[in-house]
Amino acid sequence: MAAPASVSLQDLTGNFTLNKKLSSSPEAMLVLQGIGWVARKALSMAPITLHVKQFSEEGEAHVHIAQTAPGGIQGALERRAFNGKEVEYELPTIGKIKGRSSMVALESIDDSFLKKNWVLEAEGTLMRSCIDSVDNGWSANQVWGFQEIGGKRHYCRNIVLLSGKGKKDRKELLFIYDYLGSYTEVQ
User: Fold this and answer.
1) Does the first or last residue of the chain, that is N or C, have fewer Cβ atoms within 10 Å of its Cβ?
2) How far apart are CA 184 and CA 78, in angstroms?
3) Which residues pair with 142 in a beta bridge?
4) What is the dihedral of CA 131, 29, 20, 177, to 10 degrees?
5) Is the pTM of this model over 0.90?
């Protein structure tokens, strides 16, 4: 379902699910992140709901994303502060990572794939998140925002994955999310 106009990068709060028909396959990303075959197959079959809560703290945007699968199975909890500061943390599925997130202007993005197809809001900014694996040598550069897909406004992520010697192996992914409705707290 298309995201309503009330959902924006100023308030991304709501529930979303990856539209697997319209999105790139996450398989390459999961392999790169060291996710085993059985887990990859389970993730590719189960619809994952993102419970997104955005809030402001000391003038900075924060986004917390809880992931759930059918039956109440809980996945990782992502906590991102869009302040440009690097933080190091560990996620159960992919290990130790260093990451930084910030609000950016389209003009400041130097990668043509990451810049592609955005519908800019009044503020003219997008969300950017850069993650480097401490243990496995890959990096993921993501830009979040809204794109018009099939005439409908969707929350999307353009993702560039780099790996291999000198990080020369490059994968480009587009994740398109359907809006499921108002935010529900994950217990």
Assistant:
1) C
2) 16
3) 129, 159
4) 0
5) yes
> Which amino acid is located at 137 in the chain?
G
Q: Sign of the CA dihedral 142, 35, 20, 181?
A: negative
pLDDT digit string (tens) for the chain, length 187 residues: 899 999 999 999 999 999 999 999 888 888 877 778 887 777 777 888 999 999 999 999 999 999 888 877 777 788 999 999 999 988 877 889 999 999 999 999 999 999 999 999 888 899 999 999 998 889 999 999 999 999 999 999 999 999 877 788 899 999 999 999 999 888 7
Give the separation between CA 16 and CA 180, rounded to whole angstroms. 5
Structure tokens at 95: 């290990």
The architecture of the domain spanning 14-181 is Beta Barrel (2.40)
CA distances from 103 to 1, 67, 100 (A): 25, 23, 11
With the C-alpha atoms ordered 87, 145, 110, 56, is the resulting torsion angle positive or negative? negative
The Cα 158–Cα 113 span in angstroms is: 7
Number of H helices, E strands in the chain: 3, 10
Non-local (6+) Cβ contacts of 81 within 8 A are 57, 60, 61, 62, 87, 101
